Amino acid sequence: MAKGSKAAPVAKKPMTKAQLMTALSERCEITKKQAADIYDALLAIAAEEAKNPSGFVFPGLGKLIKVERAARMGRNPATNEIIQIPPKTAVCFRISKICKDAVLS
Q1: How far apart are CA 61 and CA 27, in angstroms?
Q2: Which helix (H) or strand (E) element contains residue 68?
Q3: pLDDT tens across 61-98, in order?
Q4: Can you give the pTM of this predicted structure?
Q5: Do the beta carbons of residue 57 and residue 63 sit within 8 Å?
Q6: What angle do CA 39, 40, 41 make, to 5 degrees?
Q7: Cα–Cα distance measured from residue 39 to residue 44, given in angstroms and rounded to the nearest whole number
Q8: Helices (H) then strands (E): counts for the chain
Q9: Residue 25: per-residue pLDDT
Q10: How many Å apart are CA 47 and CA 61, to the nearest integer?
């Protein structure tokens, strides 16, 4: 390697659900089964509440909301043809300032 050059950082693989359940169970001193039950319940609540206009807030993490995307013009990359993209409903996650500051600092 040349003097002064830096090696590219090695990308770390994302945490799997099993690894997350292990970490949760260790930190909260509960079983992995209990951690998985809590996680599954949280996901079910988030999915149900995200349908509401106010969305679902993960305090300190962010907000899960349903958004309406307007119709727009697009381009088919294969044929370069201009097409009309219809309006659609999508799910959006907006990260909180606290989390953003913690991750980026």
Answers
A1: 18
A2: strand 62-69
A3: 999 999 999 999 999 999 999 999 999 999 999 999 99
A4: 0.70
A5: yes
A6: 90
A7: 9
A8: 3, 5
A9: 95
A10: 16
